[in-house]
Amino acid sequence: MTRPASRGRGRAASRHAGRPTPGEIEAAASRRVPDVLAPGLRVVFVGINPGLYSAATGHHFARPGNRFWKALHQSGFTQRILRPDEDGDLPALGIGITNLVRRASAGAADLSSDELRAGARSLRRSVGRLHPEFVAFLGLGAFRIAFGRPKAAIGEQPDRISPARVWLLPNPSGLNAHHQLPELTARFAELAAAAGFRSGTPKRRVR
Q1: Model's pTM, two decimal places?
Q2: CATH fold of the domain at 2-202
Q3: Are 187 and 154 a contacting pair, CB within 8 Å?
Q4: Annotated active-site positions, please?
């Protein structure tokens, strides 16, 4: 399901304005977080799949300690650090969020290779409909499996998706000790520069 740029998630959203309870987190297994997408976006970020905390809140990258929102700001995509419950405001900035696999789980290790490959096929269809300029994957191992690219490295990829340019970024989860926030921000900044973002404002698209 695609979430429009405008707000309007009603009582379900306000109920999770604070931190979810342990019971709500546990009950969020296999729940989905709505996509934040629109036609013609500059960059669509693709997570691996929602964590239970995000699924309980209904917002992307919501778990405290996830570095996505800080990296997004510090790299120049946004003018300030957005809260997870402001994710629906991203399309107005030319940014979207989706996931390779939509069902929530306690960790990416719970996903099968078949699920990741099926997610890649579904994503190709979505990109073909919505025509973003860049698709940025947040997770090296999941991308390698999903797209059959075992040697893929961080940065721009040689292949395109209908015909979006493809970028590979580290997973921003706080559990990813291999990439600390400064390096994560630098990698995001490379994409921000390629996509023409300056302090949250993208360059005008040339058609």
Answers
A1: 0.87
A2: Uracil-DNA Glycosylase, subunit E (3.40.470)
A3: yes
A4: 49, 60
